[in-house]
Specification:
- Two copies of one chain form a homodimer.
- By secondary structure, the first copy, chain A, is of the alpha/beta class.
- Chain A folds into two domains: about 110 residues, Aspartate Aminotransferase, domain 1 (Alpha-Beta Complex); about 240 residues, Type I PLP-dependent aspartate aminotransferase-like (Major domain) (Aspartate Aminotransferase, domain 2, 3-Layer(aba) Sandwich).
- A seven-stranded mixed beta sheet of chain A has the order 2-10-9-8-5-3-4, sandwiched between helices. A four-stranded antiparallel beta sheet of chain A has the order 11-12-15-14, covered by helices on one side.
- In chain A, helix 7 links the parallel strand 8 and strand 9.
- Chain A starts with a strand and ends with a helix.
- Chain A is globular and about 60 Å long.
- At the A-B interface, helix 3, helix 4 and helix 10 of A face helix 3, helix 4 and helix 10 of B.
């Protein structure tokens, strides 16, 4: 297969030196060598995310944390902000785990605001609020800092869970500043690694809550994860060792660049893409709430997006069509995350312009 | 870290050419290229396991299928054979998912027999039976073919779930011959790949059952997995693409060797190890029920196992101590699975003899 530079919202480009880490010999996951590898990763995560919350790396895609949220955080009833396909999935997962959930719905393209959350929390006895930070389908970036502050001020016992799958590691997120009890991500997005691991930070209060919620299972049991790390500094089940090698290497690269610099690089790519789109199209996201890692652009000129991607493929590039039947061809998405730089984005957009000029 | 040849019961040795597959460029998991990769893997799994059951590869360790069993198969009450640490975990996972479970316990080292299962099934209204084929802690290989036949003859509606995490791909297992409704494995055992993926086969009846069981969640929802593959020949969430490259490559190697030849190779390694142990020790497993992929040996001479492993490390080898507080130093384990050959086992055992002679 020819190499296509992935400007889709994940998996994004992983560079050869990172992929190459996966060729190291395997080691036993109950060995001291593994403990050293894994605790090193946890230390680096603490440094990068400037947090004292608990950190963990679970062998599964980030989505598994929707199940973990449902099985560990929700005692009886959750409020879930729904503003696109992935936040809808969070609400569905809670419902399909046998818990009650109220979807707090806004029109796709709009953001979830703190006042909406507070208004709904006043109406019923909620124990958990779940919000997707960066809604990968619509390119909306929800104001989780403001939402977290609003919730915790009035409802300190409500657990605040944030899906940051497609933003963490690009967007600079500090759990304590956001008041999150669980915040989770996937390796194949802004971490620019292969898919296969999820990264999460969770509070002491999340541990306390989980201990009181029955039916957590095993693979999805936050307490099993937490206690095993406390006792042995390892994982309850066999982790993906190859990807742990790549993760430790990549976290060093991320620390060398710096969280703030990475944030600015992502913001610069997003800003350039927005200005480019503004020439004759519009952003799909509500102004002021546009993602800095994925731009969803309204295809107001009715251009052939599948055709564009076919042409881009010949030039070694790939972008993403709109998500699902609802947004396909009506929007298209450019993932500018992970390894990409402003120059890479400029090249991509030059090619798109050039294809459209023909 | 220096290279230790892993004779532990997983992760086992993955050879450089297999690890190297993971350096290929990532591709989008919603692309035609990915569909071709994944359907190719499913085809090869069907060929190798000589089955017409549904096959799937999920990004998680095999243990997640204990949660999937609890959430998808168990309607009300399960019977779980318990003969070691991993089968205990299966029983616990069902219980900790809020379902009823009766542990059918035998002394560690003994096997679960069909008549025990039938006797217990007659006593209560069970809807699921779960058995671990190859109990990695005790080195017992349960007679799942006989158990499956016995269950299905008298209780055709009872779901039969088998954990074959540490045997499938070594031991030759054909789902239809075993009457399994779900049988699952992990890549880091007899498939000789890095950890990070689980492989499972499931019957039409398992799909039917799952559709009638509420509370399946999302990542652990067999129906989400099944329907997404039916509709798009892809996975519901982002799969570990790097490991899929390695899996497709490794399945070609496994098909080239042949399932029967691999079975015989594992049997020869096990037989040699048993004869070696019989010189002055005993197998921990009940005679006639010894695993062909991992030998658990009773340390009847009271030798220092941790010390042995320290000496072996200097020579570039690693074996496993007994599992958990219960079996540590009282037993030790030699994993002879995946890539290893009879000659490799002979070399390992020669080194152990040589260390003990000093």
């Amino acid at each position: 297969m020819s190499h296509k530079r992935l400007f889709i919202p994940g998996p994004t480009e992983a560079v050869p030196e990172v992929l190459g880490q996966q060729t190291q010999w395997l080691i036993g996951h109950r060995s001291k060598d593994y403990t050293a590898l894994y605790t090193g990763i946890i230390d680096k995560l603490h440094q990068y995310f400037e947090t004292r919350q608990h950190a963990t790396v679970l062998t599964a895609s980030g989505t598994i944390w929707m199940d973990i949220t449902a099985r560990n955080m929700v005692r009886k009833k959750a409020l879930a902000g729904v503003c696109g396909a992935f936040s809808q999935r969070m609400a569905n997962t809670i419902r399909d785990s046998g818990k009650e959930v109220t979807p707090l719905e806004v029109e796709w393209g709009k953001a979830i605001k703190p006042e909406m959350v507070l208004e709904e929390l006043a109406k019923d006895d909620y124990d958990t609020v779940a919000v997707v930070h960066n809604e990968t389908s619509t390119g909306v970036r929800n104001p989780i800092g403001e939402i977290g502050a609003a919730i915790k001020k009035e409802y300190p016992d409500v657990m605040f869970v944030v899906d940051a799958v497609s933003s963490a590691g690009g967007d600079h997120l500090v759990p304590e500043n956001l008041n999150t009890d669980i915040i989770f991500a996937s390796t194949q997005k802004c971490f620019a690694l292969p898919p296969g691991l999820s990264i999460a930070f969770y509070s002491d209060e999340a541990v306390e809550r989980a201990r009181s919620v029955p039916g957590r299972g095993f693979y999805t049991d936050l307490i099993a994860i937490h206690d095993y790390y406390g006792k042995k500094q390892q994982n309850p089940t066999t982790p993906n060792i190859s990807l742990m090698y790549a993760l430790t290497y990549q976290l060093d690269r991320m620390l060398a660049e710096g969280a703030q610099a990475r944030h600015q690089r992502h913001e610069a790519m997003a800003q350039y893409t927005r200005n480019w789109a503004a020439k004759d199209m519009e952003m799909f996201a509500e102004p002021g709430y546009e993602s800095i890692t994925v731009s969803t652009i309204a295809n107001t000129q009715g251009r052939d997006i599948a055709g564009l991607n076919g042409e881009l493929a010949k030039r070694g590039y790939q972008i993403a069509n709109g998500y699902g039947a609802k947004l396909k061809e009506k929007t298209f998405r450019i993932g500018h995350m992970g390894e990409w730089t402003l120059d890479d984005v400029k090249s991509l957009l030059w090619h798109i312009d050039e294809i459209w000029r023909r």
